[in-house]
Amino acid sequence: xxHTKVMRCKVCKGPIVIELRQHNxxxxxxxxxxxCQNQVARTIKKFWMFGPDAKVLVxxxxxxxxxxxxxxxxxxxxxxxxxxxxxGIGEYSNESTQFARDFATRRELTLHEYDxxxxxxxxxxxxxxxxxxxxxxxxxxxxxxxxxxxxxxxxYDVVVTGxxxxxxxxxxxxxxxxxxxxxxxxxxxxxxxxNGFPRKCKPLIRLSEREMAAYCVLRNIDYVVEECxxxxxxxxxxxxxxxxDMEVASPGAKHHxxxxxxxxxxxxFADAFExxxxxxxxxxxxxxxxxxxxxxxxxxxxxxxxxxxxxxxxSAEPVSVEISARSDMIDR
Length: 332
Known about the structure:
Layout: E1 18-20, E2 25-27, H1 29-46, E3 55-60, H2 64-75, E4 79-86, H3 90-107, E5 111-115, H4 116-120, H5 124-131, H6 135-153, E6 158-160, H7 165-178, H8 181-185, E7 190-191, E8 199-201, H9 209-218, H10 235-249, H11 253-265, H12 270-278, E9 289-290, E10 297-298, H13 304-312
Parallel strand pairs: 3-4, 3-6, 4-5, 6-8
Antiparallel strand pairs: 1-2, 7-8, 9-10
């Protein structure tokens, strides 16, 4: 006789669509969707990310995490617009942008589009070739600069990104492996607004990649499935694979690792955070003033992004981002 136990939804005892071993639970479609939304609401409240009246800008990549986050925040009742950046990474960038457009169009949401090549005369592959550095470096620098510019010029209270538990645990693993105190000091789901930069938050830190993929399937959200082709060799992908193996052997390992750090170790790096925010690597004070090219706060006459522009596309004209006058905005 087969005595195999049939799992039922933790909430309604109906047929399940997903089992979450780390939570010792399983859910039907309706209650799994509610579970994901509740996890985000809980995270926003616990870390005081933003209030119910905040004007929120979500950085959208066209992938499952950022589109799921946008959907969840809308369902929770927040005022949220999207921002997608064309990075010039061949067909991958074109497809990613189109998924973001389609999502916004179907739901009649506002999506700001920003094209790196049109605005600054170079793409991420161009930058990687010119600087002889890994593409992720130029990509990250460019995205941060654009997030800040569009958020400030658009009057947004906070920028949110789709970093999930897998992402944050992998970053933490790499930072702990090298004991990089400055980076560990910033390993927090909220970076407060300061020195002219907007507040930044990561509301998906309680949810995994697997959960976000399942959420998108159940909510009929189409997204780009392929990894960025320029991320090949990125150490964080290796760290994710290692942590996935740990999770199989010990469900909940990622959650305990990351949230254990936030609860017990992060406060120990508070001084390092303040030091990194106020001083340079030599311990000297960092007075901030507007970059002479773009106007963003910088500790130097020209900010790091504008130096990159000058190196990769020296003939490009400086651009002052003014999203109200942008021709490539999608407003619905």
